[in-house]
Amino acid sequence: MVDHLRIEPHCPVTAACRQAVTRTYATLKGSGADERVAFEAAEIVYSWHHPEVPRKRVPFVIADWLP
Question: What's 8's DSSP letter?
Answer without folding.
Answer: -
